[in-house]
Amino acid sequence: MGGRDTTLVLLDENGIRCDGRKVDEPRRIMIKAGGLKNADGSAYIEFGDNKIIVGVFGPRDVHPKHMSNTDTGILRVRYHMEPFSVTERKNPAPSRREIEISKVIKEALEPAVMLDKFPRTAVDVFIEVLQADGGTRCAALSAASVALADAGIPMRDMVAACAAGKAADTIILDVNNEEDQAGQADMPIGYMPSLEKITLLQLDGVLTPAEYKKCVETGIHGCKIVYELQKKALTEKYFGNGEK
Ligand code: UDP
Predict the structure, then answer these.
(1) In the chain, what are the domain boundaries?
(2) Does the Cβ of 180 fall within 6 Å of ligand 1?
(3) What is the value of pTM for the model shown?
(4) CATH code for 19-239?
(5) pLDDT at 1
(6) How far, in Å, from the CA of 185 to the mean position of ligand 1?
């Protein structure tokens, strides 16, 4: 965890967090399926102050050809943060962090995507972070699942993602940027709710075994909230107001 800001009150005497939320309350989440006409599938997510757009292309031919697999399709993921997405301008060149996040998102999506249905081809997932405020990998992973579904890619389930963590000695749902910097732990989780399978679990910080268990349960609770909004986004696009 980053350096502590001693002036920041992460949890007040009434159990209210620095952004006004309760310990088990996620930030405001808005997911929209579609939006990019040149992509085969797309999605846009606002998760608190995070704003992320995802475009999916494919299944399509693999270039260079030697990267293709005759038995199965391949998934390629690029997570990219715009230089203006953070307070201190980010160098536009891919950072180690972006390479790591691209890899973990790809590995979190792979169990969901039926890659064996389209051998020799690739599905490309492009993630553009327009505004970042802590928890971009979870927001991006959730939006990528919707974009893949929007592209008609066969999937076993959607991956819904949300972080849990620890701040002021308390387990909290959906860690924001201040809590990430000044808190004690951050645990991003990706979860397939229908299959009850975790596909992403990272932990930055130190937890006792009991806190670890509570953090996983809290994160999964957040994923289930996200999952409902993912389904709602697809229902709204394909069935109008979602009531049809
Ligand atoms: N961040 C930043 N500059 C950077 C990279 C990250 O200000 O070059 C901020 C951004 O708000 C991001 C947060 O730090 O959401 C936490 O980053 P982390 O690596 O923990 O990934 P995330 O929580 O976004 O998945």
Answers:
(1) 19-239
(2) yes
(3) 0.95
(4) 3.30.230.70
(5) 55
(6) 14
